[in-house]
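Database export, one record per block. Field names are fixed; values are copied verbatim from the stored entry.
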Amino acid sequence: MKKLIGLVLLTVAFVNASDESNGYSVQLATYEKEYKDYAKEYVNKLPKSIQEQTVIYPQGKYLAIRYSSATSLDELSKKLEYIKSSISKDAYIVKVSIDMYKKMLNESKKLTDSDKNELTKTIREQRLHSQKKLQETFSNNNTYSYSIQLYSFHKLDDKGIVKAYNELPQEMKSNIALYPSGEYITFKYLNKREKNDFQKDGIFKKIKYIFDDAYISTVVTDRYKEYLHQTKKRFIQDKEIENEDLHGYTKACIQKQSFKLENLSTHEYTKILVDAHELKSTNQVIESIKMYEKGFAHAQNNSVINNNLFYLYGKTNNWPKAVEKVCLVEKTISKVLYSYALGALEINNPMLENELSDYLKDDQLGYLHLALGVFFERNENFEKAHRYYKKSYDLNRYDMYLAYAYARSSEIQSDYKNALFMYGIIARNNDTKYINLQKQSIQRYEQLQRYLSDKG
């Protein structure tokens, strides 16, 4: 389970190098080593001017994708602003060995165009195979229909998704489904059994006047209905929360005025982040917290700062400090509190359930319930752990990590029928990010079937 939890935790590492070769680079993304092909594909999709200065940098069990290098922060500040606005909004500056960076850059240039094309072809074939397999599996069970796709956002761009939804014409919102597709969330409008139905009533023509890139796409009818329900539920819930008085995280906002905000220059802010990451990587926890707090005081919308700061609060059992800042990150409250829970799990904080109880109603992703499931499983309260695992899955049925945790817990509870059912759901999922989980689920499914067969 530590491995399962660790998949979600953002970790930052640094390369040890001599002082004379130390410098800085912009980190764009991070992949686990086993997904090396996808890291290469990410680089290949970057603009050519960016791609030429980008390297895949090994860091323990991770591969860091880094752009450019410089001996001073000033040289990278303007580049960072461009990268955050056009490539990756979560990009940040890290320390690197200049010599190592140049060496990795030279090695990456050895990858010829034919190699890149072959890599892209291989990945495309793998995906087509997965899609074909999925269609064969469900051909007798799913009903397909059609919907108008307006646009798509990367699934991590929650701010962009919310903004786009809020800017939609009011009369369209009740028929919008936020429909996941691989790494993206697509906006699907209306649902009809036949493709021509959109042409007959002129709906598609009207939509094209507003959304130039709109087109008609195929959807699984039941999934569309489920996502439509989830979309309505999500935005209605957000509205209700805004109107509540002193409930849940709103209680913490009474203390909002006690936290002093600061204005920093881009140079000061960047240096604080670099120092904070370095202190954290060398386990200088208290000093790292101070640096992250300075960065947080300047900007409360940096997910890297927020996740690391709340994680360290959890690791040092500092709930009062976490509560003080919760009201300033209302849009990502469940994410930062999950980071807090990860830190708290490291010290087995006995007050974790009590601390999170007021915020469980805001857990739209299911990860706060997952953390409490892990907590009670570690403390051998398996029945209570199972209830939290089940609730986490019920909240977010399309996250296979939650499904796997629930399947494992069902097996521990000797509910083998449900365990087999859950392992089967994971095994049939075709999202490439769950490849390893698929393999584990298939293996566990077969082992459990053999066990039940031998048992008679």
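Remark 1: The chain is about 55% helix and 15% strand.
Remark 2: The two ends are 30 Å apart (CA to CA).
End of record.
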